[in-house]
Design brief:
Length: 251
């Protein structure tokens, strides 16, 4: 049975006159009409959701960059571990990629900067009411996930950071759709210079379709997991835990 809009309309119109048979009778039923309307609505919502998630964030021209890319949240992690890594020029820093992966990785800054890179000039939007446009250079996360052999059971990536708020480490998480988005990179440079400490040195996440607080700075570890339970208070991020921010902060 092929349903066209015309058939539905005709069915509905004829329904009043009682001249119905077969499919037309079905088309005329109010319950059936409602069902079709609901299904169309659901399809549209799913369609929009799928296409929207994969769409690229706008990229800007070099001259559109903000004169200063301000810092927010932690500007200088105070832990002895981070201070030691910073004092050594991050020569001893490693990024761990582990959890639900076939091949856990431990990558130095030199190894990361030698990998194929992506550059993008994007706008960062913070919920606190400011935006800034900057040029980021970093390693596409999708390639790193393939190198680590992320398991099909992994549903989330959790980003563990070096800075603490009191005794709570900053952390964030994203799903695999955002993890494999072409503009999702682990960035080590801002505006053609190595990342300043205030902006997350030596490595920070750029997840361009989401708000600022999702872009975890001071990365130490990327953990592939099947649940967000058991980390922090279980809401998937520091601000989600302490202030009820949305876990999916799509823009
Ligand atoms: N580790 C860590 N990551 C973080 C934060 C933080 O305090 N610590 N602040 C978040 C917020 S709210 C924003 S808006 C951006 C700010 O990035 P910027 O300092 O480069 O401007 O980093 C996000 N990532
Ligand atoms: Mo923010």
């Amino acid at each position: 049975m092929i349903l066209t809009r015309r058939a539905l309309v005709t069915g509905a119109a004829l329904g009043a006159g009682g001249l119905l048979s077969g499919c037309d009778a079905l088309n005329g039923s109010e319950r059936f009409q409602r069902m079709i309307a609901l299904a169309e609505g659901a399809n549209l919502r799913i369609q929009r959701a799928v296409t929207a998630r994969g769409a690229l964030a706008r990229e800007y021209r070099p001259e559109e960059r903000s004169p200063v890319f301000r810092s927010n949240g932690t500007a200088m992690p105070s832990t002895p571990l981070y201070q030691n890594l910073l004092a050594g020029g991050f020569a001893d820093w490693r990024l761990a990629i582990d959890g639900l992966v076939a091949r856990p990785l431990s990558l130095s800054l030199g190894e990361l900067t030698a990998m194929p890179a992506r550059e993008q000039i994007t706008r960062h939007d913070c919920v606190e009411g400011w935006s800034a446009i900057g040029k980021w250079r970093g390693v596409p996360l999708a390639g790193l996930l393939d190198a680590a052999g992320v398991r099909p059971s992994a549903r989330y990536l959790v980003f563990h950071c070096a800075d603490l708020f009191g005794s709570a480490p900053y952390y964030e998480s994203i799903d695999m759709v955002d993890a494999r988005h072409p503009q999702t990179i682990l960035a080590y440079a801002l505006n053609d210079r190595m990342l300043p400490v205030a902006n997350g040195a030596p490595l920070r996440l750029r997840v361009e379709r989401q708000l600022g607080y999702k872009h975890a700075k001071y990365l130490m570890r990327v953990e592939a997991r099947d649940t967000l339970a058991g980390i922090g208070q279980g809401k998937g991020g520091f601000w989600e835990d302490v202030a009820g921010y949305e876990w999916y902060a799509g823009i």
